[in-house]
Amino acid sequence: MDAVDESAPRFDAFAASCPSRRLLDTIGDKWASLAVVALGLGGRMRYSELSARIEGVSQKMLTQTLRKLERDGLLTRTVTPSVPVRVDYELTPLGLTLLEPICHLKEWAEAHMAEVDRARDEYDREKLQT
Amino acid sequence: MDAVDESAPRFDAFAASCPSRRLLDTIGDKWASLAVVALGLGGRMRYSELSARIEGVSQKMLTQTLRKLERDGLLTRTVTPSVPVRVDYELTPLGLTLLEPICHLKEWAEAHMAEVDRARDEYDREKLQT
DNA sequence: CGGGATCCCTACGGATACTG
DNA sequence: CAGTATCCGTAGGGATCCCG
């Protein structure tokens, strides 16, 4: 390794202290990123809307995920004490900024996932021939 | 399920069948993304180099992760049958394309992680006052 | 409606020991 | 050196019941 410019925020994801590690704890969570994207596309959404939109998520996981994202300041939780309670979730400005990099990943997935699938098939076929 | 237009690659991360879900299985894995980044910065690397670079990873997880990435066609594994075996890992062209969107996330983390931390502190303080 | 609390099971992942 | 195999604890996460 050659000299590292300290003014450039180098990617020390390898050190356990790097923010990158904790970023993975946030968006690396399957449901968390889906929730962010859902709110990014849908704007303000109710709990039941999110639940319906994100197929396969249990209410335990959804609640847990939303709490986590609220704690991280990525979304707001608004309770309207009507007759049946109404709760709305919405991305904060900070949450909206996360939407962009996530969409880059989305585009990568859409563009290259077919290649990944082909690679998998090939790999699996080779291994089965053993 | 209603009719699905197969030509339009819309972002159905919410449908369990969408590539986005499987993308999360790949880069959502803590060690996988770190390995990709390590190889992105370091080029061709040996197993021991990766092990040293990615702090805190067990050899079980590292091996498992590398196999997964190899299977997905993101990196190549080259065995040199010398006296002690030498194994090198290197990103494929496909793996290199993944590096870009991951770096966008990295930049987001470095730019906003402080805000996240502040939000957390505030959230925790409010909750403890209950 | 939007959760909180509980039970329970599994698979993720670390530590250790062995091999080509 | 670069793994594979095994054991084993723990936490992730589903199902269920209940509450404001």
TrEMBL record, chains A, B:
This is Transcriptional regulator. It comes from the Bacteria. Gene3D superfamilies: Winged helix-like DNA-binding domain superfamily/Winged helix DNA-binding domain (1.10.10.10). GO terms for molecular function: DNA binding. Keywords: DNA-binding, Transcription, Transcription regulation. It comes from Actinomadura darangshiensis. Residues 18-117 form the HTH hxlR-type domain. The lineage of its organism: Bacteria, Bacillati, Actinomycetota, Actinomycetes, Streptosporangiales.
